[in-house]
Design goal:
mainly alpha
Length: 124
């Protein structure tokens, strides 16, 4: 019974996540509310299963089996590893290193000169 509940929960989470990443569902507080409602429904399902006489240990084992299954599925369905030559590195003394910002992951914009002097906003 636990495996059935967790499979339904995981399937709903998988479907909702795909819809979120494809932009079909808006994120934010509505997303969190739906997540909370789904876990509430999972708790109600667990309580009903326990009231119906389900073994608590079997219920917990069934609920916990989805994580190893998800990891095994991800390993089996991973993309193929392409073995290729690494890209050549830029020499350490190349002047382009001075124009690169690791914080912005891009080139630093050149400061704009106005009347031959740099303004304070251009120095930052």
């Amino acid at each position: 019974m636990g495996a059935v509940l967790e499979a339904l929960n995981f399937r709903a989470l998988n479907h909702a996540t795909h819809a979120l990443f494809l932009g079909e569902v808006p994120g934010g507080s509505a997303w969190v509310a739906v997540l909370g409602m789904r876990f509430g429904a999972l708790c109600v399902g667990m309580l009903l299963a326990l009231q119906a006489g389900a073994d608590p240990l079997a219920l917990v084992l069934g609920l916990s089996i989805v994580m190893p299954a998800a990891v095994i599925s991800a390993i089996r369905n991973r993309p193929p590893v392409i073995d290729h030559e690494p890209m050549p590195a830029i020499p350490p003394d190349d002047p382009s290193w001075d124009r690169w910002s690791i914080w912005r992951a891009g080139e630093i914009p050149a400061p704009v000169e106005a009347d031959g002097e740099l303004g304070e906003e251009d120095l930052g």
